[in-house]
Amino acid sequence: MNRKGTFSNQLTWNIAYLILFILFFSGMLFFVLRYQNGAAIWEEFYAVEIAKMIDNAEPGEEFYLDVSEGTSIALKSGMLRENLGNIIKIDNVRNKVIVKLRPNSGTVYRYFSDLDVVDWKLEQVSGEIDRNRFTFRIIKGRENG
Question: What is the pTM of this model?
Answer without folding.
Answer: 0.74
